[in-house]
Design brief:
Elements: H1 10-16, H2 30-43, E1 47-51, H3 57-65, E2 68-73, H4 77-82, E3 89-93, H5 96-107, E4 114-119, H6 125-135, E5 144-149, H7 154-162, E6 171-179, E7 182-183, E8 193-194, E9 197-202, E10 213-214, H8 218-227, H9 232-239, H10 248-257
Parallel strand pairs: 1-2, 1-4, 2-3, 4-5, 6-10
Antiparallel strand pairs: 5-9, 6-9, 7-8
Helix pairs in contact: 1-2, 2-3, 5-6, 6-7
This protein binds S-adenosylmethionine (SAM).
Length: about 260
């Protein structure tokens, strides 16, 4: 199917036929891809940062619409693998805990052309909180759009919620469910909640008044939670099923990729 539609632009194929686009380059749903594509096509950032290069799925769109992209990944193989594909991307290898702050210090004096940040690296609550708070040290000279992937996942969501948004006077808007996520149905991630985009906007003026953390799909997130493997009752049922030992390797690999 996918290969029989050569007349369609590649970007459209990647949004419309997610399951047919093999090997799996992206780790995002159709709704997330479409949102990323649309936002970047409207913003046309002078400078973007991505935390989590992986196989270059989201990076291809960032590279298409940004003048320059800094793509950070703990895995040094990303640079070797993806470098030749993207002439406007500077790859920075290492833990974002160590690489993000020096990069932001480097960009700050350049009258901060930074306009877009995609956070999709470390998926622990502590890791995403740290990435967010590091970005919030940056003083914007123009609007900075921040997307945080996997805001539907309870641990990632907790990390986003616990970040010190109030402490940054340039934050004007935070929404946890710009795009809601999904409850996966495939092993080895059966009944796990992933995906979703949280969104924040920084502006170069000091915020007046209270900042509210919006969660326009909180009910959906809570309903999914009850049916998910994040619910201890359901998790013990999954762990007692015959398929659980068969998927140990896939779980271990996923865990390694989201350190
Ligand atoms: C979910 S993938 C990113 C997917 C990519 N944004 C896309 O949609 O095509 C997460 C990536 O973050 C990287 N990562 C995990 N922990 C990290 C950390 N502490 N610092 C930098 N990168 C990290 C992993 O190596 C992995 O490549």
């Amino acid at each position: 199917m996918f290969n029989n539609l050569p007349q369609l632009p590649q970007s459209l194929k990647e949004i419309l036929f997610v399951d047919e686009h093999e090997p799996q380059i992206w780790q995002m749903t159709s709704a997330e891809r479409a949102t990323l594509f649309f936002l970047l096509s409207q913003i046309n950032p002078q400078c973007s940062i991505e935390i989590g290069s992986a196989k270059g799925g989201s990076l291809a769109v960032l590279s298409q619409f940004s003048q320059i992209v800094y793509s950070l990944d703990i895995n040094p193989a990303c640079k070797t693998r993806l470098g030749p594909r993207f002439s406007n991307v500077e790859f920075i290898a290492g833990d974002s805990r160590a690489t993000l702050v020096p990069l932001l210090h480097r960009l700050q004096p350049e009258n901060s052309t930074l306009e877009f940040v995609l956070i999709d690296g470390n998926h622990t609550a502590e890791g995403i909180k740290r990435d967010i708070e590091n970005v919030l040290q940056f003083k914007p000279s123009q609007p900075v759009y921040i997307l945080m992937h996997d805001s539907f996942n309870p641990e990632v969501r907790a990390g986003i919620q616990s970040a010190n948004w109030q402490g940054c006077p340039y934050v004007h808007w935070v929404e946890l469910d710009l795009v809601p996520g999904i409850l996966l149905d495939r092993m080895p991630f059966r009944r796990q909640m992933w995906g979703g985009f949280a969104f924040a906007l920084l502006r170069p003026v000091v915020r007046q008044g209270e900042l509210r953390l919006g969660a326009n799909q909180a009910l959906l997130q809570q309903a999914a939670m009850k049916q998910s493997a994040h619910n201890p009752t359901i998790l013990s049922r999954i762990k007692n099923s015959w398929t659980w030992p068969l998927t140990a390797l896939a779980r271990a690999l996923r865990h390694r990729g989201t350190r």
